[in-house]
């Protein structure tokens, strides 16, 4: 039992129990200032009430002792650490102006108004102490006062230091080295209070990049591994043992909902991917995960390969989370489709060609996905269907050259020798033999892991290239066919007509791009061949004839494989004549 230190020469006449601790006090100074104690004493059947218990008093015994000192007129200091406890305890004890002038409620309110709300740092400190005082702190208005004070003071700080921030980063991008000092202070708040502070900051006009920096710091403080490349390793990405998984889930979902919606605000991709990895780990709701994927997809052309290597959270699944990457690609393609203006036809559909920004983004993502496929291909647990889903999600124009795709498929075939012949054919059909470089074509012809039909197609198209090189033709006949098919039909609607023209235009320009890539190779080959023919007359004819005989014997694209040599020569002659007629018509 704690005896009262005031009027120690007068015996106490009432014992008050708070939080298991007993205080031997005097009724007169208590009932003169506390309405609650006055009512309990007055309502007691025993006129000589000697013991009173106060249940659930905010702040506990320590705060009650300060309130008692106030009742006895003993001086003590009100600080940011105890003012919220005193205000809530005074509300519980009903220490208002009705019982005493300048009672404890008014004294605490005066301190809040004149000291706490004038300082961002003190407001944060008081708000953090309110976590243990709910719902009383909310009811008496301490929480809303501190939240508004933090937002207003942050806005003032930003206005004062605006010039220094402009000098800090002329590009306007987020620079963590020069963010406001209060960013670190806010990380001590509980997530529900923090959410209200950020919302208030937006209302008072705090810059979006400052809010982003604040969110990043809070995430890095409350969660481990956010924004670091090491989080791809599941062994390093562990939940905080001091925090329940449900609490971590709430933190991730809340932080994602607070991210700025302004597209001009730069959010580091490493942070977004770190949040996505953690979101998968704590199993956040679908809306949160989709929002992160949408934001990443908006910047997918800027993503690195390491970012895409998201670890799978399922023990029985493959090493990397392929489904998430597939959804990122779906969102990316939807974004590309939305960025194409509906009225671009009036400006001419030439703007939708290879020089457009959207097409350049698709090409970058195409190269990124080729590298990603090669990285995940060696995983023995990677399902063929998931691998194919990543390949076929991107349009054909996303790859000018298929060398990277061929390399990834070859790695997958090597790592999965148990694939059936039909499965291998199903996988290899996505390789366009006309989009393989000379080096890749040579490798395909000697690769015994591929279906035989694949090698035959490569040899066939190589023969066509050689014939075109000797005849001087600039194409292989497919270009003229596409041009003729690009004429719009009068039966089509204007919208469908435009869509058809845009697709044809894109295909034709992609064909031109591939032809340019081939040009350097063909020029070198033609130069070497002509030089050889000049040195050895008849050598070129013999070389071309030998290749034609080899293709004729295969018999996949032409007549029967068992045809006689004479028929093969006849077929060769007709082919040469057709080639000459085609060259004459194109000229």
From TrEMBL:
<feature type="domain" description="BTB">
    <location>
        <begin position="12"/>
        <end position="80"/>
    </location>
</feature>
<keyword id="KW-0833">Ubl conjugation pathway</keyword>
<keyword id="KW-0175">Coiled coil</keyword>
<feature type="region of interest" description="Disordered">
    <location>
        <begin position="558"/>
        <end position="587"/>
    </location>
</feature>
<dbReference type="Pfam" id="PF00651">
    <property type="entry name" value="BTB"/>
</dbReference>
<comment type="pathway">
    <text>Protein modification; protein ubiquitination.</text>
</comment>
<dbReference type="InterPro" id="IPR043454">
    <property type="entry name" value="NPH3/RPT2-like"/>
</dbReference>
<feature type="domain" description="NPH3">
    <location>
        <begin position="180"/>
        <end position="465"/>
    </location>
</feature>
<comment type="similarity">
    <text>Belongs to the NPH3 family.</text>
</comment>
<dbReference type="Pfam" id="PF03000">
    <property type="entry name" value="NPH3"/>
</dbReference>
<dbReference type="InterPro" id="IPR000210">
    <property type="entry name" value="BTB/POZ_dom"/>
</dbReference>
<feature type="coiled-coil region">
    <location>
        <begin position="498"/>
        <end position="525"/>
    </location>
</feature>
<dbReference type="InterPro" id="IPR027356">
    <property type="entry name" value="NPH3_dom"/>
</dbReference>
<feature type="compositionally biased region" description="Basic residues">
    <location>
        <begin position="578"/>
        <end position="587"/>
    </location>
</feature>
<dbReference type="InterPro" id="IPR011333">
    <property type="entry name" value="SKP1/BTB/POZ_sf"/>
</dbReference>
<protein>
    <recommendedName>
        <fullName>Phototropic-responsive NPH3 family protein</fullName>
    </recommendedName>
</protein>
């Amino acid at each position: 039992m704690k005896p009262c230190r005031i009027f120690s020469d007068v015996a106490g006449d009432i014992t008050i129990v708070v939080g298991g601790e007993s205080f031997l006090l005097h009724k007169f100074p208590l009932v003169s200032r506390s309405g609650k104690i006055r009512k309990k004493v007055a309502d007691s059947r025993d006129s000589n009430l000697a013991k009173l218990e106060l249940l659930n008093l905010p702040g506990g015994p320590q705060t009650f002792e300060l309130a008692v000192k106030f009742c006895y007129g003993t001086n003590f200091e009100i600080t940011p650490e105890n003012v919220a406890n005193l205000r809530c305890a005074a509300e519980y004890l009903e220490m208002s102006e009705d019982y005493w002038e300048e009672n404890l409620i008014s004294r605490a309110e005066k301190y809040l108004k004149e000291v706490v709300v004038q300082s961002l740092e003190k407001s944060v400190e008081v708000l953090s102490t309110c976590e243990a005082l709910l719902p009383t702190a909310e009811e008496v208005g301490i929480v809303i006062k501190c939240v508004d004070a933090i937002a207003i003071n942050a806005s003032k700080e930003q206005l004062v230091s605006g010039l220094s921030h402009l000098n800090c980063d002329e590009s306007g991008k987020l620079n963590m080295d020069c963010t406001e000092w209060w960013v670190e202070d806010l990380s001590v708040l509980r997530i529900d209070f923090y959410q209200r502070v950020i919302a208030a900051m937006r209302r008072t006009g705090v810059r979006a990049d400052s809010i982003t920096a604040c969110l990043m710091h809070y995430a890095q403080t409350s969660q481990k591994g956010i924004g670091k490349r090491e989080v791809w390793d599941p062994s390093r990405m562990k939940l905080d043992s001091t925090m329940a998984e449900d609490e971590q889930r709430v933190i991730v979902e809340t932080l994602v909902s607070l991210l700025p919606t302004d597209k001009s605000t730069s959010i580091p991709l490493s942070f977004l991917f770190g949040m996505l990895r953690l979101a998968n780990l704590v199993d956040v709701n679908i809306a949160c995960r989709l929002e992160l994927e949408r934001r990443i997809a908006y910047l997918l052309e800027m993503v690195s390969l390491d970012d895409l290597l998201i670890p799978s959270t399922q023990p029985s699944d493959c090493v990397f989370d392929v489904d998430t990457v597939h959804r990122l690609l779906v969102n990316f393609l939807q974004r590309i489709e939305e960025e194409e203006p509906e009225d671009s036809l009036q400006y001419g559909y030439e703007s939708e060609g290879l020089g457009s920004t959207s097409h350049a983004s698709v090409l970058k993502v195409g190269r990124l996905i080729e590298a990603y496929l090669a990285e995940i291909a060696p995983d023995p647990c990677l399902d063929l269907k998931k691998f194919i889903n990543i390949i076929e999600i991107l349009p054909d124009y996303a790859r000018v050259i298929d060398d990277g795709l061929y390399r990834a498929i070859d790695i997958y075939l090597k790592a999965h020798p148990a694939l059936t012949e039909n499965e291998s054919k199903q996988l290899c059909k996505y390789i366009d033999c006309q989009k393989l470089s000379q080096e890749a074509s040579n490798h395909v012809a000697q690769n015994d892991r591929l279906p035989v039909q694949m090698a035959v197609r490569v040899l066939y198209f190589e023969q066509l290239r050689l014939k075109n090189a000797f005849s001087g033709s600039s194409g292989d006949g497919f270009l003229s066919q596409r041009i003729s098919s690009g004429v719009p039909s009068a039966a089509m609607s204007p919208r469908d007509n435009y869509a058809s023209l845009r697709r044809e235009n894109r295909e034709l320009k992609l064909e031109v791009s591939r032809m340019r890539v081939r040009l350097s190779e063909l020029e070198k080959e033609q130069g070497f061949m002509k030089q050889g023919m000049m040195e050895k007359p008849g050598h070129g004819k013999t070389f071309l004839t030998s290749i034609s005989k080899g293709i004729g014997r295969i018999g996949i694209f032409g007549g029967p494989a068992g045809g006689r040599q004479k028929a093969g020569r006849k077929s060769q002659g007709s082919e040469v004549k057709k080639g000459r007629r085609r060259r004459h018509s194109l000229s």
